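Exercise 7. Predict the joint structure of the components listed below.
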Amino acid sequence: MSGFGELFLRAMFVENMPLTLFLGLCTFLALSKRPGTAIGLGVAMIGVLGVVTPLNQLIYAAVLAPGALGWLGFPEIDLSYLSLLAFIGVIAATVQLLEMLLERFFPSIHAAFGVFLPLLTVQCAILAGSLFMVERSFDTVESLAFGLGSGAGFALAVTLLSAIRARLAYADLPAGLRGLGITFILAGMMSLGFSSFAQMVAP
Amino acid sequence: MTALFATLTEPLVRKNPITLQILGICSALAVTTSLDTALTMSVSLTVVVVLAAGIVSLIRKHIPNSIRLIVQIVIVASLVIVIDQVLQAFFFDISQRLSVFVSLITTNCLVLGRTESFARSNPPLPAMADALGNGLGYSLVLCLIGAIRELIGKGALLGYQVLPTTDTGGWFTPLPLMLLAPSAFFLLGGLVWAIRSIRPEQADAPEFPAPEVAETRQ
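Solution:
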């Protein structure tokens, strides 16, 4: 169980998706103007990453990994080159399914952050969660911890950034720095802050 | 011909995909710790975006509108798998250092953005010119940031020692911060600032403009 918590915290702080690994930056920068939208995006990220990463781990282990089809009598088949296509398909299908379920059973939640769900299909952070899972050979529980932790880290970072940007909306910045420029510099400062977490979990 | 040339050169600086449209920065910052990874990434992305734009544009009249995103993603993902296998076969060291970022070209907003907004409604030749221009614009920013980070962080370019560092008896003290994550954000922020100062028409309008005349105190 300590492994679960450690992996969760590590994915959330030490290997924070947008700030130390630069993943999912497009949505991170585009949807962080207001704290309300940022929180919606963060919750959607936690949900999708928490579902997709373990699901992809199951599929990878059962079908795509080298030698996974041994029980069918094909022990030498290695389908791992197909994992990219499979992961994208799973992500698109899961996002669609989640959206339909939310719309049917939790209309209020769907109204709050349903607009962000389709965007997440082509979000690098979500695909990267599955790819890191393969690269570091996590099992199902570990990939659940990793997915939830990465999602929580993304939610934390995007909420913090949106709060800072909301405070800066009235600031008198140089014309060239308005909007995108200052956001990069803010993200850089937050990234400096997050790098102090690097020693939190021993490697 | 001039129109083709214009679509090719416009995205280089004036409509640069990274600094103006915030497309494709996800991978742009992660691979720029040294110039050789940045170069590999640039070449891979340019090849993928040109081929994807060509293929999507060739079959643009046969793609049903409702499933066009899936079709485009599958085309891009197949091309990325090919590039990834080629890199692993011939440039194993670099492909190890790029780790998952080559595969992440699939979800790079730049590629999907070009196929969705341009290649889908234009014949193959202009579509590929536009994709090449955007790929080169992306490469330009990537190589610039990669060169600055490697030069200041290690005193080297492409692995060759350019500035003699103090460890080896030279005068240059490397700044390791340049190799860490925050400096990439600062450099890109500075680059955006520089470009927008030279070309003020790219700057964002202020969200809450200051009143022209200051309110007078009673």
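Discussion. The two ends of chain A are 17 Å apart (CA to CA).
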